[in-house]
Amino acid sequence: MLTCFLVTTYFCTVGQSSNWQGKFEQLGKELPTPNEYRLGSGAPGPKYWQQKANYDIHVTLDDINQTITGEETITYFNNSPNALSYLWLQLDQNILDEDSATPKVALDGLHNSQDTKSAAKNFNLHNFKGGLNIEHVLDEDNSALKYVINQTMMRIDLPTPLTSGESVKVKIKWNYHMADRMKLAGRNGYEYFPEDDNYIYAVAQFYPRMAVYDDVNGWQNKQYLGAGEFALTFGDFNVNITVPSDHIIAATGELQNPEKVLSAEQLERYVASKKSFDKPVFIVTKDEAVKNEKSKSNRQVTWTFSAKNVRDFAFASSRKFIWDAQAVKLDSNTPLAMSFYPKESYTLWSKVSTATIRTTLETYSKYTFDYPYPVANSVNSADIGMEYPMICFNYGRTQPDGSYSDWVKFKTINVIIHEIGHNYFPMIVNSDERQWAWMDEGINTFLQNRTRLENYDYFPNMGGTAIEIVDYMKRDPNLLRPIMTNPEQMVSRGYNAYYLPSAALNVLRETVMGPELFDEAFKEYAKRWAFKHPKPADFFRTMEDASAVDLDWFWRGWFFSTEHVDISIDDVKWYRTPSSTVDVENKTKKSKKGDLQRSENNKLLAINDEPLPFNIKPTPRFHYNEFQSRIDDAAIIENLESKNFYEITFTNQGGLISPIVIEFIFDDDTKEQQTIPAEIWRLDENTVKKVFVFDKKVVNVVLDPYFETADTDMTNNLYPRKKAESEFDKFLEKQSEQ
């Protein structure tokens, strides 16, 4: 009978509440059902599989006409349990085809004015003829294969289905005109330098690439419209790149024939750089690069690169490149950090680029796994930050006299950290960027911030922390999207894909889980899914599985909703036992310094100026039920006589469930901070009360004093409330300084 009574009482209490919206319900219905491919723990299952695609590519860069011509042989391995009657390939260059859907679906409008650069691009005045021209698609025996091109995707029909465990070879020949990035922007193309009549080529998405076929989606053949990036299959690459003999190339993979493309002196420096751990070695110096700019050789050479177990290949080529390199000592690997840049960036990049690569590899390795590839390249190209395996294209230029501001330096270091960091997410932990931008951009921005905080203490915040997303979360709800939104539907991709998920992970690490639990769980996710294809559920489940922290409420709120954090202190009541030295009957007694009085214009904004009575009584016998032992009533009463009790009412104004980070300031100017887990909201998601007991008297209560939860309204975070907003602002300023 007693048990039934307790259970009934509990459910009646819950049932009477109208403040339940299921925010603590498990995510089971929203996540895919675990199976033998992907386990409920978030780990790959015993029958997990993924496809493989090897590439043998030969491309020629025409420095006169800015074109690429290429031939490739793709060897595609079907490791799935299914027979495939056709293959899907990505033709991402077709985003610039004259029939591309991208400009057709772009939203635009007219304003009072528009600059010529924007107008020429927006109104298609360049008359650029882009897109891949497919010359042929052949099988291993050079017989033509039937294919159809649908915008940025190409389907190749196989004569006979490719059964499980088999492989097929496909030969493709193609060509295309590279885009002028100054005119058309984009993730790849060329940059022209009129002063010396030279180019920097940043060449990516330059070959037909296999789409991903996996256990969750089948073929990932979602069209490339520009915002959603790439979903790619791992494989081995052997790539021959033919360029003018005075060009220097940076590429994915290791250079296989340095003795054929470098001078004897350059080769000697290149070998020496692999053992230089204290400073970079200049393989091509500034003077040599300046001399190279004037050569304009008509002779061609072929650079050969090999890359194992990568999902993509990109390269950069120019006769303007200065080239420096330095070895990085990790626990299990010694990659070569290399930077390529023109004289227009020399004074900045020669100081920061390779050093930043080293710092990034060391820091990311600490939080995930040792960087496994042999090289990591940073290439300077104007107004871009874009990543590929072992290579990235980054902005950062000096003034003509070689000077640069601190802000340019900060931005340059920041972009290099970010793009080098992408080697981990998504180049190794190979998420689907076309569908889930946060899984690479957001996670990478989070680690980028860890790298900045741990190595560059003089840096300003540059996005991705809790305090930096407050203004975004206060926007018109019509402009907000959940993190779990396809990038093509994001109104503000920078916040949605980068800063918001990064801030969420910061809150998760610093406030919800704590660094120790978070770091171990995060490292487990990275190791489980290195060189595999994780989905969001794999991340969510692994973080819980490896930490024993139930985070479904967190994922539901931060990732699936557009609610924001706004917790308010609505009331604070001060109590003491009547037997204490406080005269609770003297209602006319003046308050001590630090207390704020109530008023008609400021009611419920101050802690009551005298304590309310709170009685501690001996426990009645029937409360002990069957227990024979007893509490020492006198000791308990004596212990609590000198205590101050504070009953605080919190309301959830923003809807997003959050831990309550609270700081108490006492009448002797000392402070104490406590963090109440988010589960305090589990029975009532709108209003909760909590009692705190102290020896000292509280004069101020502050929520989120160090801005770690992204609370969007700090004006209701202070109690007593300040009557004058300027006083409140001064208080917040003082808190932030501390």
From TrEMBL:
Residue ranges of coiled coil: none
Listed CDD domains: M1_APN_like (cd09604)
Molecular-function GO terms, alphabetical: metallopeptidase activity; zinc ion binding
Location of the Peptidase M1 membrane alanine aminopeptidase domain: 365-558
Family matches, as InterPro entries: Aminopeptidase_N-like_N_sf, Peptidase_M1_dom, Peptidase_M4/M1_CTD_sf
Gene3D superfamilies (UniProt xref): Neutral Protease Domain 2 (1.10.390.10), tricorn interacting facor f3 domain (2.60.40.1730)
Name the record gives this protein: M1 family metallopeptidase
Origin species: Fulvivirga lutea
